[in-house]
Design brief:
The structure is a single chain. With 194 residues, this protein is an alpha/beta fold. It is 55% helix and 12% strand. The protein has a 5-stranded parallel β-sheet with strand order 2-3-1-4-5. The termini are close together. Bound molecules: adenosine-5'-diphosphate. The site of adenosine-5'-diphosphate (ADP) has 17 residues, from α2 and α3.
C-alpha cells in the first residue's frame, strides 16, 4: 500500500503513523522527522529548513520535493510506504503525482485525521516541543488551513480520500484507521493493482 496521511498539527498523526507502519509493514516517510534530523546534523538543507520550521512556516516546496524524490527511490519503499507530512501543498501533490507516474505506481489511499481546531490548540500547548510556542502553533495551524487543507478537495476529487475521526483514544482511532485500510489492502494473492 502507498498511503498519504494528512492531518493538522496536534492531530496525533505521528502516534497513529507508527502503528500503521508496524501493522502493515510499510516504510515510514515523515518529512518532519527528516527535517529535524537534517537540522540536528547541521546539514545545509537542515539549517535552511530550520529557519522556516522554527517560525511555523512550511519549508519551500523544492527543498522538500527533492528530499522525498530521493527517499522514494530507496529499496525499502518498494514494499509500500506511508507518507507522513507530505504532500502539504498542492504544488507538492502535483510533484508527487509526477514521481508516481514516472515509477508507474499510484497511491492506494489518502487518510485524513480530522480534529477540531480548538482541541488542536489545547493538545499542542500541552506538548512542549521547541516549535510549540503559542505564536508558532498559531502559524502552523494557519499554514495547515491555507496551504494543506486544499489537498482534501484535491484528493477527494481523485476519489482517494478517507476521513478518520481523530477524537477518542489512541486505540479507538487506530481501529477506525484499520477498518478503512483493510478495505483497501490488495488481496494477498493478487497482483492486480487497485
Ligand atoms: P506537525 O506537528 O505540524 O505535523 P511535522 O513534524 O510534520 O509537524 O513538521 C514540522 C515542520 O517541518 C513543519 O511545521 C514545517 O515547517 C516542516 N515541514 C514538514 N513537512 C513539510 C512539507 N511537506 N512541506 C513543507 N514543510 C514541511
Amino acid at each position: 500500500m502507498r498511503i498519504v496521511f494528512i492531518g493538522p498539527p496536534g492531530a496525533g498523526k505521528g502516534t497513529q503513523a507508527e502503528r500503521i507502519v508496524q501493522s502493515y509493514r510499510l516504510a515510514h516517510l515523515s518529512t518532519g522527522d527528516m527535517l529535524r534530523a537534517a537540522r540536528d546534523a547541521r546539514t545545509e538543507v537542515g539549517l535552511k529548513a530550520d529557519q522556516y520550521m522554527s517560525s511555523g512556516q512550511l519549508v519551500p516546496d523544492d527543498v522538500i520535493v527533492a528530499i522525498i524524490a530521493a527517499r522514494l527511490s530507496e529499496p525499502d519503499c518498494r514494499q509500500g510506504y506511508l507518507l507522513d507530512g507530505f504532500p502539504r501543498t498542492i504544488a507538492q501533490a502535483d510533484a508527487l503525482d509526477r514521481m508516481l507516474k514516472r515509477q508507474g505506481t499510484r497511491l492506494s489511499i489518502v487518510l485524513e485525521l480530522a480534529v477540531p481546531e480548538d482541541e488542536l490548540f489545547k493538545r499542542l500547548a500541552d506538548r512542549g516541543r521547541a516549535d510549540d510556542k503559542p505564536e508558532v502553533i498559531r502559524q502552523r495551524l494557519v499554514a495547515y488551513r491555507n496551504q494543506t487543507a486544499p489537498l482534501l478537495d484535491y484528493y477527494g476529487k481523485a476519489g482517494l480520500l478517507s476521513t478518520i475521526d481523530g477524537l477518542g483514544t489512541v486505540d479507538e482511532i487506530f481501529q477506525r484507521i484499520r477498518a478503512v485500510l483493510d478495505e483497501h489492502s490488495p488481496s494477498p494473492s493478487g497482483r492486480g493493482q487497485g
